[in-house]
Amino acid sequence: MQKFTRVRAPAAPLPLANVDTDMIIPARYMKALTKDGLGRHLFQELRYAEDGRERPDFILNHPICRAAQILIADRNFACGSSREHAAWALTDFGIRCIIAPSFGDIFAGNARKNGLLLIRLPDAICEGLRRDVERSQYAPIEVDLEMQTIRLASGETLAFAIDPDDRRVLLEGLDDIGRTLRHNDAIARFEEGGRGSDSA
Fold first, then answer.
1. In CATH, which of 3.20.19.10, 3.40.50.300, 3.10.180.10, 3.40.720.10 is domain 6-199?
2. Which sequence spans correspond to the domains of the chain?
3. This prediction's pTM
4. pLDDT in tens, 47-66
5. Is 144 in contact with 159 (CB distance < 8 Å)?
6. Which of 50, 73, 113, 194 could, after both became Cys, cross-link 77 (CB 3.0–4.6 A)?
């Protein structure tokens, strides 16, 4: 899994509450077994008209925000089903960090497994951030996980909190296997102890 230390990139504002996983990636793309190519279908119904043409008013079709790596969303982002494909589609598009007041619980676990940083900030702060990036014409902002700060184009810096274990997993790029391997010695000792008990 890719490590997350610091990202400086355009941020795309998405002022829609209760965006569910079906909006993020429609069910018809759920047959994919890997995330490769799923980014093309991220927010499919919002990004494209029925004839397949891009909707020019959707933020990820903006010339600058096509390269967005940060999404500033609204409350209850990625609620709904347990599909990991939502996290896959976001990361395959290039999104590394999502800032929102709240997230769907299952999505939050899937995001962590895929190296996607979720930052929870109050509604008013998120609304202000969306206004700021629009005013700056989508100039890059910087998210620093080591320092736990967001630096805006204006130079203003905001601090954010994150669960220490989530922070470590993202900084070290640890997937489920990597986290297990960190405890290899303890597992081996446990197994040795078990074998000793059996032979007694």
1. 3.20.19.10
2. 6-199
3. 0.87
4. 999 999 999 999 999 999 99
5. no
6. 73
With both helix axes pointing from N to C terminus, report the angle between 164-172 and 105-113 in degrees, rounded to the nearest 10. 30
pLDDT in tens, 7-19: 999 999 999 999 9
Spell out the residues 6+ positions from residue 190 whose beta carbon is closer than 8 angstroms to its own. none
d(CA 79, CA 22): 9
For the segment 58-87, the average pLDDT, to the nearest whole number, is 96
Alpha-carbon gap, residue 60 to 42, rounded angstroms: 9
123 contacts 98 by C-beta, under 8 angstroms: no
Surface-to-core class of residue 30, CB atoms within 10 Å of its CB (0-12 exposed, 13-18 middle, 19+ buried): middle
Closest CA relative to residue 146, chosen from 8, 6, 2, 1: 6
pLDDT tens-digit readout, 83-127: 899 999 999 999 999 999 999 999 999 999 999 999 999 999 999
